Amino acid sequence: SDAQDEGLRQLGKRLAQRGRNKWWAFEGFSRIDCCLITSQCVLFVEGKRTENVSLSTLWFEQRSQLWRNVEAAKEFAGDKQFAVILAVEREANGTTALAGAASSLDGSYPHLDAEQRTELARHLIGFVTWSEIVTRFGLRPECLLDRVPT
Question: What torsion do the CA atoms of 71, 72, 76, 79 make, to the nearest 10 degrees?
Fold first, then answer.
């Protein structure tokens, strides 16, 4: 009872106002690495260089960071189209992260039915490597000065 009272008090003081009283207010705020916005769509980029995708949140072990970002992108985008893409150092990192996301889909969205989970899953569009980004946009390789050895 005391813990519930304290949780409600803290929620009332900080998160509920900014979280618009949504259930996910307990998670705190997402910190998206890159958000690209056009008149028609929103793209969130979750960038990973030396760390891995978090398979859980502090308050909910089954909630994957990627699925949390997809849901945040949907909320942020409103009526626009939306997607989340992962940027990683190596293809193996992306493959591993997407496999982990696939296995955590149901557990990350217990508040949604199967059809809603399937719909959200379409918005995690894959991964790209940092070297592909550098090449595609004609950037100098030095822009990745802290490059992880391959």
Answer: 0
What's the predicted TM-score (pTM) here? 0.77
Mean pLDDT of the chain: 83
Rounded to whole angstroms, how far apart are CA atoms 150 and 148? 6
When pLDDT is cut at 50, 70 and 90, the band that residue 16 belongs to is very low
Whether residue 53 contacts residue 65, with contact meaning beta carbons closer than 8 Å, is answered with yes
The percent of residues in the chain predicted with pLDDT above 90, rounded, is: 52
Q: Residue 109's closest CA among 63, 66, 44?
A: 63
Angle at 109 between CA 103 and CA 114, to 5 degrees: 80
Q: Following CA atoms 33, 36, 41, 46 in sequence, which dihedral angle do they give, to the nearest 10 degrees?
A: -20
On the CB side of 65, CA atoms within 13 Å amount to 19
